[in-house]
Amino acid sequence: MTDQSVHPEASAPPFRFGPWSWREPVRGEHFRRCSYCGSVNPDDLAAEPVWCAEWADRKYGWPHKFYVDIPNRDPARLYVLGSSSGPNPPTESRDWIARSDVSAEQREALERDDYFENDSRTHFLFGPRPLHHAKFYSIHLRDAELDPAVKAAIEPRCGLTFVFDGTSVAWHPAATEPVQGT
Question: Is there a single domain that holds both residue 25 and residue 61?
C-alpha cells in the first residue's frame, strides 16, 4: 500500500525525494513509518489495542495530523532518549553522558539505534521508554490500496471520518454532516 498520489509532492520540485515507501521499524519501535512524512503505517496503527489521538493544529485548514502514544512492547529496555552535539552537554539536565563515557550497555543501545561512531552527536540521555510518541497523517487514509477495514478501525478512535474526493477532503465527527475542506 504505497499509493503515490498520497504524497505527490515527494517527487516534485523542489523536493525530488522520489517515491515514498513504508520503512521497517527502527530505534526500538515495532511499527513502520512513511519514508516521506514519518507517519505511522495505518495497518500498524489500527492493529494497536491502546492509543488515543491528540490532534495537531489545523495550520493547513483541515485536521491533517494527530499525535499518538503507542505502548512500547519492551518498555524496560534501554533506549537513547536524547542526543546533542558540541563540546558541552545541554545544561538543563545532569544526566547527559559523553560518548567517550558510555557503558557497554549504552554503547549497545547506540549501535542498535544507529548512532554511529562518526556521528557528530557527543552527549546522550539514556533510559527506559514506556511509550513511543508518534504521528499519523490523515492523508494516508486516502491511499486507494488501504483496506477499508483499517480506515474504519482508525476513524472512530481518532474521532473523525474522512471523505477524500480527488484532491479535496471533507471530514465530520460521527453522525454529523461533512465539513468541506481543501
Answer: yes
What does the alpha-carbon distance between residue 124 and residue 121 come to, in Å, rounded to a whole number? 8
Instruction: Render each residue's pLDDT in the chain as its tens digit; 182 residues.
Output: 667 778 777 767 766 667 888 999 988 899 999 999 999 999 999 999 999 999 998 887 788 899 999 999 999 999 999 888 888 887 777 789 998 999 999 999 998 888 876 778 889 999 999 999 999 999 999 898 899 999 999 999 999 998 888 777 888 886 444 455 54
The count of domains in the chain is 2
Structural domain boundaries enclosing 114: 79-127
Are 174 and 95 found together in one domain? no
22 contacts 34 by C-beta, under 8 angstroms: yes
Q: From CA 58, how far away is CA 60, in angstroms rounded?
A: 5
Cell of 53: 489521538
Distance of CA 86 to the CA centre of its chain: 27
Q: Is 170 found in the same domain as 101?
A: no
| CB 37, CB 46: distance < 8 Å | no
Residues 22, 66, single domain; the answer is yes
